[in-house]
């Protein structure tokens, strides 16, 4: 199990830093967030636009038929009149007549000094038409101070009230206005600016609904057209203290805005999503009146030469007039997109919520699952943002909430995974490096999250070995430092053999070694592996004793061994197989991976009984039954060891049964096989209560000068003599050991 607390702490820190970065977000990051949101618009696709909005287009066809722009004012007047005659609800001009018509005969004659009496005045014709039609003029605000003074100001037929206005001005403030020529401006019922402010990446995503000029609030063309259609005489600009504008309300329609009075445009689709009618067709009355009646009519241009093209999320070449059409559509449909003041708090809450969830999941799952979860969570977040954007009209942050947060948590989790796995591997190496073989270690490291170290019942073969005469050795050594070195000289090769045979060293108990097979990872033929390790250790004694004898530091021990006529080092080994409890055991302060249970106790008893039976390798019948290799066996006894009730067969293994090899500690395999044949014949007689016949064979074998066991025959001779003198009742061949060895 991974350290979830560490992942949670990392997730919290990443969420905190992401939230801080979001709050102090520079403009560049805002642009990236907008671009991500643009893709959500593309996923949504086109939405059917309102049929109540019509665009009269000064298109290439109109320019070809009516001539180059600007057209004669009387031609513009004719278009306005034809629209009015067709029942247009309100007409908005996305054009400004900032200069007088050079084609006006009155202007030309005046410049030539001629009389203008009875001559058509195109400016006057347009002005009268504007006055008698539902036309809203357009104009442009200039935001930078270019030193040019504007005479007059746009007309404001409604009252604009700034509610709860703070000391700071949040509305964009114009330095001057590019108005229509006075005669047109003065005859208009109303007018509105048609400025659009692209974001830093050049895309138009919002339109200002109101701006300030000379201390007064002025509406945009779209805002004014809606106000007139709703017949509202008051417009409220609603502020939230120190946050800025929250909304603009006209009559019963409340439009959410950003802090600067700008409305995010919920674009319906790419260019030409709305009904477009050519201006030349309106001029020549080549249209259906029902296409105009009661509609919002915007007059603008899609002609490339007139330079009123914009870039927006759906399209890089988008007529500016259609931006205003979308704004009007949003207002009359009420499907606004906004970033209310509480969105910041919502975004931060989402950052922490998702951050904590991802941290927990990444802390629990594997690397592959982590990647899948990352993809799933990102898709869910995008779906949630999609829902909030188009069904609730709330624009949540995408860049920080999804991209930066999710990727940061993922990267941090991968780094944590690396360090935690490295730490875990080091822990495992530290715990098992001196206990198990390299391939066993590799198996554990490949599966660090498995239940390898958890407590469980498992069949094992346990190994106990003990150095014979250790008390005498330690007394002869005299020097503790030399004694430790002496023991290390013994333990080093013996441990290596165990590890080479895929065994696990459990502990060193003074001069004894405890080991086991088939844990922590499974080992095929673990009983044979344990026997092989035991016999290899016994074979190693010859070269080990020679090395110790040649070491001057151990001279006293050598003399002691020579005097007692014993090897410097001799060992006894006990093996038993059975189901034990294996796993990490101990306390939170100190623990170890070990094995406990009845099979371990039996294994220890078998080792201690090596002295009693004068054997070097004792195994139980449980181990013998699992062996598939060929070995030279001797049945030793059927006993109940101290602390046990059920009888146990004890077997001695002399050596491997390999063709062409002489047995360990014996000169002739043929002679040993014959000895064991006679011995087991005697054992069968003993078990059958034929004690006199068995005694005869045991005495014969005991008389051999080169017998392989110098004590076992004395044991059975004594028992047979006892049973001959005192015949047993209900004899079962079981001998009860009342001591450990």
Written account of the structure:
By secondary structure, this protein is of the alpha/beta class. The chain has 4 domains: 4-27 and 342-429, no CATH class; 45-333, no CATH class; 437-594, Nucleotide cyclase, GGDEF domain (Alpha-Beta Plaits, 2-Layer Sandwich); 630-741, no CATH class. The chain has 23 helices and 27 strands. Strands 19, 20, 21, 22, 23, 24, 25, 26 and 27 form a 9-stranded mixed β-sheet that branches. Strands 1, 2, 3, 6, 7, 15 and 16 form a 7-stranded mixed β-sheet that branches. It has a 4-stranded mixed β-sheet with strand order 4-11-12-13. The mean pLDDT is 89.
What is the number of independent domains?
Answer: 4
Name the average pLDDT: 89
Distance between the termini: 44 Å
Outline the biggest β-sheet.
9 strands, mixed
Strand content: 15-25%
Helix/strand-derived category reads: alpha/beta
How many DSSP helices? 23
The helix content, as a percent range, equals 40-55%
Number of strands: 27
